[in-house]
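Fill in residues.
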């Protein structure tokens, strides 16, 4: 009995983490009225992030950047420690999983306090596109990393070298933790619907990142849930910002299109089920654009085109870095050999 319970500690941590994420999102909303007195500048357009102080101070910047760096280095350190240990994937929890869960929970509490005392996040000193871009990098990285398992187009794999996929898998934890933690500290814990949905999503991603080297970390249904959360987040935020006549179909059908083209083919679904999902997608497109206007149909391919092209760019960058490192190592080895011979 003890052994059976121990095997399921990863699932217990997962469900406990989901509950914590939901409860703390409620806490952000509940205490949000305390932020109503924070003075903000008027909205200045799409490239402007509204939730930043008009007159930042040394302490508003120092706490945002200092806590972010401490959070980032802590998680990177735990990932490096785990990789040095080379553990197996287990149904329980490793010690570093417990440490990562505790660290992320602690920094969530710290960010809450930092928001209510100093307010500002990293948005004060960085572009709004850097936050959005970091999440896009993570999503594109997943597509590349999963190419060998589920393919890229209707189960067909892109001819990408195995060494590139292996490198993407080996270092994905560092990249994903950067994307998540940077975005987390970019925003103050405000109570708009977009912020609340976004923070709940960030909490789930941090939970996933804490469970590395466990079986639940590679559960295909749980990992798909993480990927599809961006569909819900992007669509809901677009609806709240611009209403039903706005640009929400670009996010909904764009990310759903990636699911139909790529993601559903890694789930072991029957051919019939996949055809039914595809038919539902087509029916949705026809229904929305018969009302919205066929002249806007190009919206549904914008996100897929960007992400699939970005996969090729990312694979090329990884290949380039690998070759540069190989050249540097070769030059270093030759230099050492030359010194030894003399």
């Amino acid at each position: 009995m003890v052994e059976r319970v121990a095997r399921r500690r990863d699932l217990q941590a997962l469900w406990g983490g989901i509950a914590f994420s939901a409860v703390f999102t409620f806490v952000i909303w509940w205490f949000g009225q305390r932020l109503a007195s924070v003075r903000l500048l008027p909205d200045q357009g799409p490239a402007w992030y509204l939730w930043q102080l008009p007159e930042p101070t040394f302490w508003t910047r120092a706490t945002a950047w200092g806590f972010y760096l401490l959070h980032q280095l802590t998680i990177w350190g735990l990932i490096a420690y785990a990789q040095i240990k080379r553990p197996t994937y287990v149904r329980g929890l490793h010690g570093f999983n417990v440490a990562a869960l505790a660290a992320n929970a602690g920094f969530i509490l710290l960010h809450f306090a930092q928001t209510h005392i100093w307010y500002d996040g990293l948005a004060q000193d960085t572009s709004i596109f850097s936050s959005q871009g970091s999440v896009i990098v993570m999503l594109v990285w997943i597509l590349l990393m999963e190419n060998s398992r589920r393919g890229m187009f209707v189960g067909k794999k892109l001819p990408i070298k195995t060494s590139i996929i292996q490198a993407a898998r080996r270092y994905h934890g560092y990249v994903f933790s950067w994307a998540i933690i940077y975005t987390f500290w970019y925003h103050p814990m405000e109570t708009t619907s977009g912020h609340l949905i976004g923070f709940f999503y960030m909490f789930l991603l941090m939970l996933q990142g804490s469970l590395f080297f466990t079986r639940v970390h590679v559960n295909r249904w749980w990992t798909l849930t993480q990927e599809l959360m961006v569909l819900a987040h992007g669509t809901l935020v677009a609806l709240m910002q611009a209403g039903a006549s706005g640009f929400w179909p670009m996010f909904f059908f764009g990310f759903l299109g990636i699911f139909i083209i790529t993601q559903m083919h890694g789930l072991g679904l029957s051919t019939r089920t996949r055809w039914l999902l595809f038919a539902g997608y087509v029916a949705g497109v026809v229904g929305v654009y018969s009302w919205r206007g066929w002249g806007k149909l190009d919206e549904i391919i914008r996100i897929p085109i960007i992400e699939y092209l970005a996969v090729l760019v990312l694979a090329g960058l990884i290949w380039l870095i690998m070759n540069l490192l190989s050249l540097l190592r070769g030059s270093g080895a030759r230099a050492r050999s030359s010194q030894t011979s003399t």
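DSSP finds twelve helices and no strands in the chain.
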